[in-house]
Amino acid sequence: MLHPENDSQYAGLTVNAGVEGQPIVNPYFRPAMRKPRENADYYIAGILRGDKPILAKAVTLVESNLVSDQQIAQKVIEGCLPYSGKSIRVGVTGVPGAGKSTFIEALGNDLCKKGRKLAVLAIDPSSERSRGSILGDKTRMQELSANKDAFIRPSPSAGSLGGVARKTRETIVLCEAAGYDTILVETVGVGQSETAAHSMVDFFLLLQVTGTGDELQGIKRGIMEMADGIAINKCDGNNVEKASVAKTQFQNALALFPPTESGWKPYVTTCSAVENTGIEETWKMVEDYIAFAKQNHFFDINRTRQSKYWMHETITQYLLDSFYHNPVLTDEIEKAEQRILDNKESSFIAAHKLIQLYADNQHK
Amino acid sequence: MLHPENDSQYAGLTVNAGVEGQPIVNPYFRPAMRKPRENADYYIAGILRGDKPILAKAVTLVESNLVSDQQIAQKVIEGCLPYSGKSIRVGVTGVPGAGKSTFIEALGNDLCKKGRKLAVLAIDPSSERSRGSILGDKTRMQELSANKDAFIRPSPSAGSLGGVARKTRETIVLCEAAGYDTILVETVGVGQSETAAHSMVDFFLLLQVTGTGDELQGIKRGIMEMADGIAINKCDGNNVEKASVAKTQFQNALALFPPTESGWKPYVTTCSAVENTGIEETWKMVEDYIAFAKQNHFFDINRTRQSKYWMHETITQYLLDSFYHNPVLTDEIEKAEQRILDNKESSFIAAHKLIQLYADNQHK
């Protein structure tokens, strides 16, 4: 039987369903057409007074691929921009099974109790909301998603990494303007989403679990050296001793890494999201880092660099899209790859032929 | 006093000076104009019969930015392509001070004695040959550079990383066609050259030295996780014990890393290039890896992927160059960055404005 929560058209909204509107009673119901959008000022005003349902709708606009939606979305972002930038942005990564959702739930409830306002976003280009992607399953963060001071939003739906990440980056602006002072960006630790997340956060936390090494299977190489800190989760029950050994091991490994650009020395905490231990210590690491990085000005340097990065990244994505989505080229690119595989043509000559074809078709 | 070896115009050739021709007697001599080039067939035939001076001249064509030179160079590469691909390609990285040159000298002499033919190339976009860049100082590899079975070539001179790396990648094709069955690609461990080298080699070796961690200062984070193996150099004299401790430490750190895509477990050797110990063991690691990767087919999968990568990388570089070198945009890009810094415009809107300007000027 069809059910709204298994339907990708709705699933994106169900995480904030409590504030989004009435549940849909008839599971067979499909809206015949999109509701007309409000104008940009409506969203900006709503966001600035912290109206969560309006924020959610504005994020939907940001995520939309419709040109008309994007036009409003860009105005909304522009209007929110002067009010953004004042949050702490933290990336949280770890493979499925590292307990990211329970960790974020525990951390989030903790932060809200302390008076912080928390937005939890995600980057997972492989996600299809209907299939229980990260943050897509609201049962995982039941308490937090009902918290008035928390805004939880699953990853923008499947698309190119560049597109998905850009939307998350833009959503940060809206959340900050709506008064969220803490932004968590979750990724699954298995691909390039981490690089994207890393370039929009102040602190990058790697969630690990103990074990024989099998748990590391999923995580991509290079991510460990990206981390500003590691938290070993599931340090509970029979796992406590193993977790403490792992902490020492990771701490030793980190000591062999070259220093971070900020001058910060990443370290390792242990925690248990289910027993709610070590969560505060882990957050203290984030706060210590922020204080450290603000003092030596790396915080601002990094943010400035990130802003420039996103401009250049957007340009690069546009240039690549206009090349690779050029209908004249699609078949030719495949043929070129085949000639390379057959050792009939060098990678460079194949590239130049495609570039020539592209240039010829642009001027027509 | 001027001297050819301190002159960037000649220094690029001095490494192979022994085979390149007569030494220049008059240090004030400057050629008034370039010698006319031969046609592509001349170079191809010379390369295929292993003529080192002709190979060196062909590499000069590959490195040249003159359109007329590039036209010949691309034909030469195309002609050599069917005879390429049969070597072992190894990347060697490590910060200045890790002893890369002495290591390569020791390893290279060893390999040549065993009947291998060795080409040593480099990627260092920051290099200016006149200022003693990697491989630029022939005194460092005196014995090897005089060896008839070795071909040593410094990094193509300063330019964009993409351009420098592409030239090195193309030079590999020529060297392989000339019968060199072992290619070493040296980088300095401090930048993106490692990513470029990594995408053109079969095995990536990180050369480390022992110490308090200060030695790691220069190496960029992320490179350690790229390595298929680590060799701790300068394991001699008072350093032997420290090197053996470091070996264990790095071995433990590697064990915490997620497995490599090939399934290979990187490990650590110790060696002394000056005492010529451990060099064979280090090379055995490379050979073991090659056997392992060929058996599970990762070797071929990786090479295929690398070839495709270079096609797409060349396309990307072209697209970026045509954007960023567009004279209409240069000033505007700077202004856009400033608006972003002043928080007056989002990265995305700034990007879109530049893209619009670019599109308008393309169609004119």
Structural topology:
The structure is a homodimer of 364-residue chains.
Chain A: H1 8-14, H2 17-20, H3 40-48, H4 52-63, H5 67-80, E1 88-93, H6 100-113, E2 118-122, H7 142-146, E3 150-152, H8 161-177, E4 182-187, H9 193-198, E5 203-209, E6 229-233, H10 240-256, E7 267-270, H11 279-295, H12 298-324, H13 330-341, H14 347-362
Helix pairs in contact in A: 3-5, 4-5, 4-8, 13-14
Name its key features.
homodimer; 364 residues; alpha/beta; 7 strands; 49% helix; globular; disordered N terminus
Describe this structure in words.
Two copies of one chain form a homodimer. Chain A is of the alpha/beta class and 364 residues long. Chain A has helices at 8-14, 17-20, 40-48, 52-63, 67-80, 100-113, 142-146, 161-177, 193-198, 240-256, 279-295, 298-324, 330-341, 347-362; strands at residues 88-93, 118-122, 150-152, 182-187, 203-209, 229-233, 267-270. In chain A, 49% of the residues lie in helices and 10% in strands. Chain A has a seven-stranded parallel sheet with strand order 3-2-4-1-5-6-7, sandwiched between helices. Chain A is globular and about 65 Å long. The relative contact order of chain A is 0.10. Residues 1-25 of chain A have low confidence and may be disordered. Chains A and B meet through helix 5, helix 8, helix 10, helix 12 and helix 13 of A and helix 5, helix 8, helix 10, helix 12 and helix 13 of B.
